[in-house]
Here is the input.
Amino acid sequence: HRIASFTQLSHRYVDITDMSYIMPDEIKNTKYHEEVEKHYKYSTELYNKLISEGVPRDEARDVILQAIETSLLVTANFREFMHILELREGKKASNEIQQMVREIHRLLAGICPAVFKD
Here is the structure.
């Protein structure tokens, strides 16, 4: 999305100790969800051990899993948002992306219904 500008919370400088992991429904609904939960917890524990040993946060974060929560700011014009919605609301996008984009669509429709009607 070339016209969009993305800003994401950096796990390089932020202490992730109290952040949550986001488990996809596809994993929650399996017999492995407890094992995955333990994996999430272990990665945070290992991160904290590395920090306590003096490893810089930007190096210790390498043990943190992609499932950790983050914040994302997207700036784009209406045309680019329409393009993003067209691409990411489809079945080819991951379920997590589809959920996020549906929420963006809902918010944009509330702001400018003439442009973002269903």
Summary: Residues 20 and 69 are 6 Å apart (CA to CA). The mean pLDDT is 90. The two ends are 22 Å apart (CA to CA). Helices lie at 25-28, 33-52, 57-60, 78-88, 95-111.
